[in-house]
Automatic annotation (TrEMBL):
Keyword Nucleotide-binding: yes
ABC transporter domain mapped to chain residues: 4-215
UniProt feature coiled coil, ranges: none
Pfam families referenced in this protein's UniProt entry, alphabetically: ABC_tran
Family matches, as InterPro entries: AAA+_ATPase, ABC_transporter-like_ATP-bd, P-loop_NTPase
Native species: Marinobacter halodurans
Name of this chain's protein: ATP-binding cassette domain-containing protein
Any GO MF annotation of the entry: ATP binding
Keywords: ATP-binding, Nucleotide-binding
Amino acid sequence: MDAVHLRNLTAAYGGQQVLGPISLDIRPGEHIALVGGSGAGKSTLLGLLYDQVRDRAALVPQEQGLVQSLPVFHNVYMGRLAAHSRWYNLLNLVWPRRRELRAIEPLLEKLGIPDKLRTPVATLSGGQKQRTAIARALFQEAEILLADEPVSALDGPLAHVVMGLMTESYATSVVALHDIDLALRYCDRIIGIQNGQIALDDMTRRLTPSDILPLY
């Protein structure tokens, strides 16, 4: 993928500026963590970034964006709707094709929900819904992964499994995280957001938790 150049991004709510102006570059092969306290502007920045790269990005939004009435299979399959004809997509809605099942089942196995393939999303736990949204993004196979708190509902060991899988599946990613340890372990660049501005931007190898904690 080509580098992403963001220049003078701003966001306002109710007539009050809450983010920016922010400028930053995202280079191919970077795994970037957005860190900072609640309300700092991480989700807003991620949303602005998605607006810039929507045609080549897979998104895991904090609210997940799942269709509650449909099974896990169909929610994951939606990651590739744009890759197929409307006829083929309708066919999969009524009768999932074997090749799509074979592609999605291993993802669910890796994410620890292999038995939920045909389960309606509405009946899943919060952590299972989160993993369904992640499976959809992994199935999409886009150029860049954008994820907003993708492991917030997962326990420690499972959070590590999912972070490792996302890092392995996408060469370039930007992930908003509250967990400093996960950010330092799975990302090679940390961008800290505070009061709507970039307060920290450095390579992970040069940082320790004590460098990041003041952002919270």
